[in-house]
Amino acid sequence: MAEALGLSGRLQVPEYSCSYVVSRPVYSELAWEQQHERRLQERRTLRERLATSCSCSRKRALHAVKTLLPILEWLPKYRIKEWLLSDIISGVSTGLVATLQGMAYALLAAVPVGFGLYSAFFPILTYFIFGTSRHISVGPFPVVSLMVGSVVLNMAPDEQFISNETTVNTTMIDFEARDKARVLIASTLTLLVGIIQLIFGGLQVGFIVRYLADPLIGGFTTAAAFQVLVSQLKIVLNVPTKNYNGILSIIYTLVEIFQNIGITNIADCIAGLLTIFICMAVKELNDRFKHKIPIPIPIEVIVTIIATAISYGANLEKNYNAGIVKSIPRGFLPPVLPPVNLFSEMMTASFSIAVVAYAIAVSVGKVYATKYDYAIDGNQEFVAFGISNIFSGFFSCFVATTALSRTAVQESTGGKTQVAGILSAVIVLISIVALGKLLEPLQKSVLAGVVIANLKGMFMQVCDVPRLWRQNKIDAVIWVFTCLSSIILGLDLGLLAGLMFALLTVVLRVQFPSWSNLGSFPSTDIYKSTKIYKTIEEPEGVKILKFSSPIFYGNIDGFKKSIKSTVGFDAVRVYNKRLKALRKIQKLIKKGQLRATKNGIVSDAGTSNNAFEPDEDIEDPEELDIPTKEIEIQVDWNSDLPVKVNVPKVPIHSLVLDCGAVSFVDIVGVRSLRMIVKEFRRIDVTVYFSSLQDHVIQKLEQCGFFDESIRKDIFFLTVHDAVLYLLNQVKSREAQDSILETISLIQDCKDPLELMEAELIEEELDVQDEAMRRLAS
């Protein structure tokens, strides 16, 4: 069977029976433009552009309204009979999970648990109207909640709220004042983040998320998972620690946790560990049997109900001093305008939170948009989350984005549209209005266990590092660097450091680009790297360089080095050495030791006894300029010279630059290209360009690259066009040299018989010359 499939021996390479033959002229850019007229580019003034963009029509106005309010696009097309039941089931399931996660993530944001319910409710109301994703579940997310918590703890630490009842042995904290201040700070930060996101959406800068590459996001979220784990570990153990923030805060927190581990509350520890173990085990079952289980088991809800009942029945707070939720606000607080005077203190952190929250939401949204074949608008998502966070900021919420686990529940239970999201908000609303009192006996360690159990997916990203290392080592280094910097420096500085490092790798890759020396396969127009293929041939006297990068001020030195490596010599050094040799030859001619003839330099005094001179490079070649008549001395630079000057050999007559991968050039690149053409021309090497894109040629024209000495006839459509042209030129030149040599012999002969033979030869050469002219044309 294996032999029949071609698997018994070597890999079977498919053979293609089809082939093609193309017959066309050799095209330079100049010849192509003369034969094919360019389409004129219409240049409009700024006033004309503004007039076009600001013009309004009914169709354009309707499109603008639907773009700003996507609900007008999808809600009229809602299929009630097909989608409503699925959305109801999904909404109820997602609402139960959102209720528990909202309470749990409030611990990360350093605000009372009840305010997590508000953060799971209000953002959904506005995203339902302005959002473009049909499947994401809007609300708190652990990474963003932790970033909010770091700002809150930094601006409102416990030390600022020491009660007047503090004694020498005990420190009393005014928890009510502290919680009130922290809620105010969190809501102010949410308002500022929303304003920033709304501005970004208005400026159409949704592309900013492209700079947060997948390896960077993976390393950052993994580091955030470690930060979340440490912050929740002290709640699971119920040990007192200071609220550290900034550089090495995770290390200081771990040290203090282990210093106080002897006073761990056993009831809280057992409840937290059981919650982690049960939730992770059931989630694993949900993943393994998701095709057989129609609805994932809402294990967080089940564990929370059981834990609340046990805590209430055993009175764990009184009997075992367990930490419980205690009080959950019933109903809603009136909207409050956050103090804008705090904006200056949280401006830096708000930028990173705004971008991270948006990046997480868009990346999750794109996954499901691709799966279900619809598109999300990145700029509109900025607007949607900006409005959601501004609206939520007035109702004592913290920053909202989307949670991966909650979104997975909404999609896997059959959610089709954001109707499921609004129904999940109804479930959260019921919890706020009616069920909040029932959850007051719940242990905080259970909520911390729920948080930790949901970190499994982020921790599993560590397994991506070996795969990244095999595929792309730079991406693996970005992942590790971002993760370590976020753990050591904190999430905000770590994200900035990771972003700067990722951009630095891009700069380095552009500054030190890839290039290759090309050769052709016999009887084809296919050119590949000479280092990769064995059966490849280089045209005699020709070097072909493919440069795979833009040519600009940052990598122009690398471009010049690639040329030197390809041709095997430095054109400037060769020119300087030739000038030096010409000066010595000039001196020897004046002394009568050498004689200049039509055929080159002839020695009259035997071998020169001049001592070998060291090869210093000439610093200023213009000082050694020789008059034109003396430069026209015929010297074969690739043969032995009558003077002892080490002039590098130049084994080529043409250099072809394949610029098909050059996406742009700047003014420094244009000047350098002009200089390269002139430097090689001085040593009798012609530089040709091929495969340039039209906009690059236009940039060369704008920068004054072309003049009388550098014309477009050295630019060709393809590498093969350039090679065919220059080889034809070489053959034509060789034929002309042969003709001139024969004519010289004819003029030197004196015998009449020889003269008649010479005339016949001259007539035959004239015929050959005419044939070569036709071939050249």
Please state roughly what percent of the residues sit in beta strands, choosing from under 5%, 5-15%, 15-25%, 25-35%, 35-45% or over 45%: 5-15%
- Show unreliable segments: 1-11, 606-631
Mean pLDDT: 83
Question: How many distinct helices?
Answer: 30
Tell me the total number of β-strands. 10
Rg (CA only)? 39 Å
In the sheet with the most strands, the strands line up as 4-3-5-8-9-10
Shape: elongated
Helical percent range? 55-70%
Q: What characterizes the major β-sheet?
A: 6 strands, mixed
Distance between the termini: 60 Å
- Summing up helix and strand content along with how strands pair, one would put the structural category as mainly alpha
In short:
The protein has helices at 29-35, 46-54, 58-68, 71-74, 80-108, 114-119, 122-130, 142-155, 175-202, 214-237, 249-259, 266-288, 299-314, 316-320, 343-371, 378-393, 404-412, 419-435, 444-453, 456-459, 464-471, 473-489, 491-511, 556-567, 571-591, 628-631, 667-682, 694-702, 719-748, 752-776, and strands spanning 138-139, 401-402, 514-520, 527-529, 542-548, 594-597, 600-603, 654-658, 686-690, 715-716. With 777 residues, the chain is mainly alpha-helical. The two termini are 60 Å apart.
Q: How would you characterize the overall build of this protein?
A:
The protein contains 30 helices and ten strands. It is elongated, with a radius of gyration of 39 Å. The strands form three sheets. Strands 4-3-5-8-9-10 form a six-stranded mixed beta sheet. The chain has a two-stranded antiparallel ribbon with strand order 1-2. A two-stranded antiparallel ribbon has the order 6-7. The longest helix has 30 residues, at 719-748. Helix 27 links the parallel strand 8 and strand 9 (686-690). Residues 1-11 and 606-631 have low confidence and may be disordered. 37% of the residues are buried. The two termini are 60 Å apart. It is mainly alpha-helical. 57% of the residues lie in helices and 5% in strands.
